[in-house]
Amino acid sequence: MVATDRFRPSVTVAAVIAREDHYLLVEEETPEGLRLNNPAGHLEQGEGPIEAVVREALEETARAFVPEHFLGVYLARFVRPARLEDVTYVRLAFSGYVGEEIAGRVLDRGIRRTLWMTETELAACEDRHRSPLVLQCVRDHATGRRLPLDAVFAHASLQSPPRKG
C-alpha cells in the first residue's frame, strides 16, 4: 500500500446531553438537507477529545457543556450522494450536562436550532438523522453505559509536539 492510500477516518466528538427523559439535539444544514444530530463536530489539531466536545457543544448549543462520562468509540461509514465522497467517521461520545442557553451567543454556522427530544421521538424520525450514530449514542446512554473520563488520554504533545531528527 502506498502511503497516499492510507486509510484516514474522520475523527469527531459528540455530546449526549439528557434532562430527565429528553436529549438535547441540533438541527443542522447538511448537503443532504436538514438533519438531526447530537451536538458534535471534528477534532481539531492541538486539542484533546474532551476539549473538543466542550467546544463543539458550546458552539452548536450556546450552552456550556460539562462532560461527566465517556460513552465509547463509535464508527460509521457514509457515502455523501452530492459528492460521492466515501467517509468513515470515528466518533468519541461523551455524556454530561449543560446549563441554560447563554444569552446573546449565536449558534454555529449551519445550526438552525436546538431541540429536546425523547429517545422514542428520535427513533421515530431516523430518516432525518445525520448519522446512524445519533440514535445509537442516545440508546447507549439510556441503557446506562458510563465509562470514566480518564479512559480517554490526551498527551501534552498535542499542544507542543516534540521535534525529532
Automatic annotation (TrEMBL):
InterPro entries: NUDIX_hydrolase-like_dom_sf, NUDIX_hydrolase_dom. Residues 8-140 form the Nudix hydrolase domain. Gene3D superfamilies: Nucleoside Triphosphate Pyrophosphohydrolase. SUPFAM superfamilies: Nudix (SSF55811). This is NUDIX domain-containing protein. It comes from Pelomonas candidula.
